Amino acid sequence: MSQSCRSRYWPGIVLALIFVAFSSSTAIWIGKDKTPPVWDPADHINTAFDYYSTLKNGGLTGFLSEFFLSPHHYAPVFHLMMGSNFLLFGPSIVAARLTNLVSLALLLISTYGIGKRLYDRSAGLLAALVGSSYHMSAAFIHEAFIDYTLLAFVSLSFWMLIRAEDFHSRKWATVFGAALGLGMLVKQTFIFFFWLPLAAQFAYLLRRKDSPALINFSWALVIGGAIAAVWYVPHLKETLEIYRVNRAAAIGEGDPPVLSFYSIFAYLYAMANYQVQPLFFLLFIAGLILSLRRHRRQNRILYLWLLSAYLAFTAQPNKDPRYTLPLLTAAALLTAYLAYTINAPGRRMAAYLLIAGCSIVSFFTTQWPIDNGGEPRTGLSRSATVALQALSRNVDHIDQGPQSRDWSLGSIAEAIADYSEKPHTVVGIADNEPLFNPSTFGVYFRLLRKEKAESVLQARGIEEGEWQRQINRCDFIVTKAGNIRESNQTAASHRLASLIAGAPDCIRLAAFSLPDGTSAVVYKVGRDSPLK
């Protein structure tokens, strides 16, 4: 191969090597892990299974009915990607989690594309490596969270926005419009990352009275709006409802009031700790400060990216570090910029290699931690200051190595199906913990339907305040029993389990040991036990 060919293809080879290394590690992690999906990933798997099953069993007509008429609170792209995996490999939790490998490829290419246009190819490669190996990126890639795919689509859309060249290119303005529409179909919060860049671009074009560019700008928005409207028009009610649910959740979760000190700095703190961790946060801040001093115009799009999302999410009452995950690409680009500005070639290459090495360590130590054994991380937290306590967090049960402990949810589903004598069985879940909740049970109930087509189990939540009325609508009840101090069970769930255990209409059928030291207890609602 000639030198010119090597020079042309080496970035693609490096990106391919990063993808193979990271995707292989993630696939092995997913294959070894037996942990049930937590709340949101479980909801996404359930939605994807519904799309898949209607297409497989009802054909195109059934799928279109599910897509347009059935109530869904989240936009469909991620679920359709997951459903495609189900068609290829069969429905399973493993197939659902592997969906993010497609997003990894998209993220690597998009980040490299941005870095190449803003700086050069080497900086683009470094940014692609850094952005995909941040602590939270490495943890979320092996889970069925929608936010990792959002990270990839936001990065792709900014790449297309940059390629539109201030909307002087009709071709790339059209592509950007399509990316904008698809991004909105990934998650509603996609627009939070673009409202300020688009407003700034419009003001710039208006000030210059650049009519051709304004026409291309308007054309891009029309295309994006038309694509997004396909789903949002029939699902406007659910879109507004999920927004209200998240606002209410802010109160229940104890989030700080909007515009309070803790609210204003919540996402900065999140980035410094469990999103990228302190070392990479310092590199990002150094790159940001240096860019403001030297190349503000060159990096303006990154400032708008960061500021747009930070302002939008800070103004929302519900705070969660995964919401701002797509900011990490901008942070990675400014980190690469820090090394890119070093004039001496030898020192610049040394900086590239040092940051790349730290990135690789970050990715693999996140997926394969040495000492936590599935428990919240220790070590640094024992001697760290309060500001660094997040280093010990096991966020949403994903900041850990793969777990082999069986939570028996599949066995519980099979047992209920064997006990049931009805084609459609309603199962009340009297708990709402990360790994033991109606959504998570819903995944296993749907997977059971794949094996036993005649068994349709529906999970329904049971709350303490109305438990007597709610259990009358159920055929079976599942509770947790055991020492509340040794589990994540809330006091309300513990009381509810005791009430159900003493209810005369609830007949105990079976118990299953759980890894947290408690037991899952299955009850039949009614005086006549169907024990077989």
Helical segment tally? 23
Strand order of the largest sheet: 2-1-3-5-4
**C-alpha end-to-end distance:** 71 Å
| Main sheet characteristics | 5 strands, mixed
Mean pLDDT: 86
Give the class from helix and strand content and strand pairing.
alpha/beta
- SSE ordering: HHHHHHHHHHHHHHHHHHHHEHEHEHEE
| Number of domains as seen in the coordinates | 2
- Apparent shape: globular
Assembly level:
single chain
Radius of gyration: 25 Å
Uncertain residue segments: 372-397
Give me the count of strands: 5
How large a portion of the residues is in β-strands, by DSSP E? Answer: 5-15%
Q: How much helical structure, as a percent, in the residues?
A: 55-70%
Question: How would you characterize this protein structure?
Answer:
This protein is α/β, with parallel strands linked by helices. The protein has 2 domains: 3-34 and 99-367, no CATH class; 409-525, D-Maltodextrin-Binding Protein, domain 2. It has helices at residues 3-32, 39-68, 77-89, 93-97, 100-118, 121-133, 135-140, 146-163, 170-184, 195-208, 211-232, 236-252, 261-264, 266-275, 277-294, 300-314, 327-340, 345-367, 380-383, 409-419, 438-451, 467-471, 491-502, and strands at 424-429, 456-461, 476-481, 506-513, 519-525. The chain has a 5-stranded mixed beta sheet, sandwiched between helices. α8 packs antiparallel against α9 and α20 crosses α21. The chain is globular and about 75 Å long.
